[in-house]
Amino acid sequence: MSPSSKSAPRQIGLIEDHQDYRRVLQQAINSSPHLICQHAASSVEAFLAETATIPKMEVILLDLNLPGVHGVTGIPMLFQRFPDTRILVLTVYDHKPVVLEALAAGASGYLLKADRLDTILRGIDEALSGGAPLNSHIARMILTTFNAVRPAAPEIDLTDREREILSLLAKGLIKKEIADQLSVSYHTVDTHVRNIYGKLKVHNLSGAVAKAIQLGLA
Amino acid sequence: MSPSSKSAPRQIGLIEDHQDYRRVLQQAINSSPHLICQHAASSVEAFLAETATIPKMEVILLDLNLPGVHGVTGIPMLFQRFPDTRILVLTVYDHKPVVLEALAAGASGYLLKADRLDTILRGIDEALSGGAPLNSHIARMILTTFNAVRPAAPEIDLTDREREILSLLAKGLIKKEIADQLSVSYHTVDTHVRNIYGKLKVHNLSGAVAKAIQLGLA
DNA sequence: ATTTCCATCGCGAGAACACGCGAGAGAATG
DNA sequence: CATTCTCTCGCGTGTTCTCGCGATGGAAAT
């Protein structure tokens, strides 16, 4: 985990508006022989200005509650400047929407300020080695929404034909177009759709399509 | 993180077929003052038999590559026996399908045998405190499939009202019902739906609903 | 051999939808 | 003050859907 590198130390960036915490973190990083933090700023804007001539930044620790540009908004900006960097969110926020937004924006990990310093340093190492350090409560949050997406399909057995028609409906085709595409009559498609209604317990196309997608049937 | 409990130690179960590793792990757990591992078996079946009279098991460490019932298959069996337990997968497997299957089955965390012993013990504590310990490479795997599900919404800006109507449509309501529920006229809903069609570039309800769900707008 | 399931096809009536072509009011922006 | 958005409402016409009530033939299962 802790590479006793004889090579050049890895460049770590730090964006955190709380001055004391920033200094402590920077010192902690710099006391790791294989890491170096030369650029620590209190906002995304300041960081980008400060690193205007710096070619490479391996990992960026990013607070979210920042003056000026919010952290989540800053993520794409940082990626534009450092396409290959790995961004680790380090904040006090642990509210689902924020977390998901940040991760969706491309963050490689999510640490909390409540975590111990060595946990954070380990997180940097993990990010450098291709991992995604997540605070375990954040991980749990992701797992639950992850499982919410696939709520263990409640045993709906559609026939192959029904599934096929359903997926064409999900593309926005109308029954007649589906009939043409499958080379069957409108009535046939209609019958299949009725059977689908029965199985999914809905009474119109949009409901069927919605349910099918949410259940992962189409 | 490390509760210096004066209360009874927490019951940890262990299912692992490699005898030496099992013994090492059991000793490690038992050397933690707040944890106790009295039941360690080499298969799911053996574990269930051995704990037939045990009422409670807070955390179960579960290997996947087991004789008899495979670990993933064993997860629901263990839950049936211990509904409130937290199952931590501890294995050498790090292949995506297996990982996702295990987590979808309800595992509360996923550790690798390559992890250090103290990482595993910390994982148990995290699970006890409601977290989901994930090896950082596993976490990364989940994040990537997570982001694959939501492919960075292509900048569709629907209004709040449009989103609201869309989500009602996704529940299978027809326009008239939505009008009633929102206390507006049918025509108003109709207009909103037309605007949605324009923005999503579709021409019927099912297409709109499908696109909305797939884009995570509803 | 009978039953069951699946895919196919047909008609008709009434409901729901798609869309063109309007309009007015209020809020926000410039 | 004009413009732009958003939400609101209205009518008419043609299209599409929903559903009741059928049917046939083939394949698989019992």
Can you walk me through this structure?
Two copies of one chain form a homodimer. Chain A is α/β, with parallel strands linked by helices. Chain A contains ten helices and five strands; from the N terminus they run βαβαβαβαβαααααα. The N terminus of chain A is likely disordered. Chain B binds a DNA duplex (30 and 30 nucleotides) through α7 and α9.
Features:
homodimer, 218 residues, alpha/beta, five-stranded parallel sheet, 5 strands, 50% helix, 12% strand, disordered N terminus, DNA-binding
Low-confidence stretches of chain A: 1-5
Instruction: Give me the Rg of chain A, rounded.
Output: 25 Å
Q: For the largest interface in this structure, which chains are involved and how many residues does each contribute?
A: A-B, 46 and 46 residues
Provide the residue-averaged pLDDT of chain A.
88
Q: Report the β-strand fraction of chain A as a percent range.
A: 5-15%
> Could you give the order of strands across the largest sheet of chain A?
2-1-3-4-5
The biggest sheet of chain A amounts to: 5 strands, parallel
The topology string of helices and strands of chain A comes to EHEHEHEHEHHHHHH
State the shape of chain A.
elongated
Structural class of chain A: alpha/beta
Number of strands of chain A: 5
What's the tally of helices of chain A?
10
Tell me the span between the first and last alpha carbons of chain A: 42 Å
Oligomer: homodimer
The helical percent of chain A reads 40-55%
